[in-house]
Write a structure and sequence with these properties.
Helices cover 80% and strands 0% of the residues. It is an all-alpha fold. It has one domain (2-127). The protein is elongated and about 50 Å long. The two termini are 17 Å apart. The mean pLDDT is 94.
């Protein structure tokens, strides 16, 4: 499992750098400054939690329990729901759509998944 998390974090880390570069160079021509800040938040939180996922992969070798394993799952779910919803909101601004009204309420669910991931990681490393 630990190698799997490290591999995912590495691949998504490269994707995250590309997303950040896109936001810094191309996206600023397409959306207002406020949406750039939303997009930047998505990229930052994605990157932070990819580092957390890599940490899970490293720690899982010493703390092989379901808490640590599931921390990685919740970090991935958090990225999908939190960052993913913010990317969709930015996309909505790019295309000028009134749709995607359901996306905004998903963002806090992603934040909750991040919190659960951190709690599980803490519990898992205490279990030894």
């Amino acid at each position: 499992m630990h190698k799997y998390y490290i591999s995912i974090a590495s691949f998504l880390g490269a994707v995250t750098v590309a997303l950040g570069a896109f936001g810094a160079h191309a996206l600023k021509k397409l959306v207002p400054e406020q949406m750039l800040m939303v997009y930047d938040t998505a990229v930052r939180y994605q990157f932070y939690h990819l580092l957390a996922l890599a940490l899970v992969g490293i720690l899982y070798k010493s703390f092989t329990n379901s808490y640590v394993k599931n921390a990685g799952v919740f970090f991935l779910l958090g990225i999908l729901f939190f960052s993913g919803s913010l990317y969709l909101l930015t996309y909505k601004a790019v295309i000028g759509s009134d749709g995607f009204g359901w996306v905004g309420p998903i963002t806090p669910i992603g934040g909750l998944f991040f919190i659960i991931g951190w709690i599980l990681l803490g519990i898992g490393t205490k279990k030894g």
